[in-house]
Write a structure and sequence with these properties.
The complex is a heterodimer of chains A (about 220) and B (about 220). Chain A is mostly helical. Chain A has one domain: MetI-like (MetI-like fold). Chain A has nine helices and no strands. Chain B has one domain: Orthogonal Bundle (MetI-like fold). The N and C termini of chain B lie far apart (about 60 Å). Chain B is an all-alpha fold and about 220 residues long. Helices cover about 85% and strands about 0% of the residues of chain B.
């Protein structure tokens, strides 16, 4: 039994792979910005919003966290057009990734908010800060700092999960591997190369976020 | 077009949910065994084992499960093994869950106070005896909630096996959606079934965790 691997045939398609990686990175950046904003808003709603809103957010979080991402994606891409919402594959991917990250980060950020010492809130009240000021200036910065490691892990998970978006023909990295496979039948080699690219990107992304977090989000 | 009433859709989806459950159980059992072996390797040989198993965990946690499934599917084919979707999905999900479980359980072992290791060593217990009688039982109690939480992740992970042609809940849902042109209804039902499988486990895991925190 002789196995011949031909990586050259795959690596010759490097422009395709790089384009795929760029798409993966782009989808991730947009989904992270939107998803974290959604998560922070929902965490606020969950911890100090009106009662009805709390229940709605709780339902959203539980629903997303207990269903597979691929179903969420298919629902957005195939299901929503049936009720008149037509989306391109790219937008469907971004929406599904945002909703997914939003739900997980809601729980993560909420844990950070709940760990705020009571004295901080009392101090903010005694300085006559409005609830909004208290939330953005007193509660959020240390809360984000506390939960940043967990958030980074979740962002990496969402990035890796975006491989599924190739299934609705979003042209990201796994889709590029699929395309190469269908062009030259070097399936195994194509997926090995793409997998290693994911691995390298995951490691880089984690490093970058760990470096960026303290500088961008909560000041040192 | 053939008439496809909602009862039929539900019946087919419920039948398909069986295979989601079976695949999850296979991956959990296989992943548990492999994960346990890796854990022991890590404890017995902290240097070499720790390094190798650490790399293994990094590899599986740092790459998409979808890619792992593709690699298992096409990789086994290279060796001339005739792969069914069963074998490929079972293998990929077993390896995937072993990496996560071994890491989770290592955390639980580490959470057992050091004094327990020292005390049991001073009683001249061998490593297997220490693990069996002293460390294991204590770690087990801590391990149940995160393990149940991982089960949820694993059940959701089996949905990706649909991509390599494993006919489970997601795949069946896609086929029915294509046949009936009612994707909104069908994907909603599929999502509800996953929810019905995962949510009780999530809630159970959360409750156990709370009880554990109160007990400590």
């Amino acid at each position: 039994m002789l196995i011949q691997l031909d990586f050259a045939a795959v690596l010759a398609q490097w422009p395709l792979l790089m384009r795929g990686l760029a798409w993966t990175a782009g989808l991730t950046v947009v989904a992270v910005i939107l998803g974290l904003s959604l998560g922070i808003a929902c965490a606020w709603a969950r911890s100090s919003g009106p009662r009805a809103l709390r229940w709605i957010v709780a339902g959203y979080v539980e629903l997303i966290r207990n269903t597979p991402f691929i179903i969420q994606l298919f629902f957005v891409f195939f299901g929503l057009p049936a009720i008149g919402v037509k989306l391109t594959a790219e937008w469907a991917s971004i929406i599904a990734m945002t909703l997914n990250l939003g739900a997980y980060s809601t729980e993560i950020v909420r844990a950070g908010i709940e760990a705020t010492p009571r004295g901080q809130l009392e101090a903010a009240a005694s300085l006559a800060l409005t609830p909004l000021q208290t939330f953005t200036r007193v509660v959020m910065p240390p809360a984000l700092k506390r939960v940043w490691p967990a958030t980074v892990s979740q962002i990496v998970i969402v990035m890796l999960g975006s491989a599924v978006c190739g299934q609705i023909a979003t042209e990201e990295l796994s889709h590029a591997a699929n395309l190469i496979h269908s062009r030259n039948f070097r399936a195994f080699e194509a997926y090995i190369v793409a997998t290693l690219m994911y691995l390298a990107f995951a490691i880089m992304l984690r490093q970058l976020l760990n470096w960026l977090g303290p500088r961008l989000l909560f000041g040192r | 077009m053939v008439d496809f009433p909602i009862q039929d859709i539900l019946r087919h989806l419920l039948l398909a949910a069986r295979w989601t459950i079976v695949l999850s159980l296979i991956a959990f059992a296989g992943g548990g065994l492999v994960g346990l072996a890796l854990l022991v390797a890590r404890i017995a040989r902290p240097r070499l084992g720790g390094w190798l198993v650490g790399g293994y965990v990094q590899l599986f946690q740092g790459t998409p499960l979808l890619m792992q499934l593709f690699l298992a599917y096409f990789g086994l084919g290279l060796f001339g093994i005739k792969v069914s979707a069963w074998v490929a999905a079972g293998l990929a999900l077993t390896l995937y869950s072993s990496a996560f479980l071994t890491e989770i359980w290592r955390g639980c072992i580490n959470a057992v106070p050091r004094g327990q290791w020292e005390a049991s060593a001073s009683l001249a217990l061998s490593l297997p005896e220490q693990l069996r009688w002293v460390i294991g039982p204590q770690a087990l109690r801590i391990a149940v909630p995160p393990t149940a939480g991982f089960m949820v992740q694993l059940i959701k992970g089996t949905a990706l096996a649909s991509v390599i042609g494993f006919v489970e809940l997601t795949r069946t849902g896609s086929m029915i959606a294509n046949a009936t042109f009612r994707p909104f209804l069908v994907y909603s039902l599929v999502a509800l079934m996953y929810f019905a499988l995962c949510w009780p486990l999530s809630a159970w895991s959360r409750r156990l965790e709370r009880n554990l925190n109160v007990a400590r």
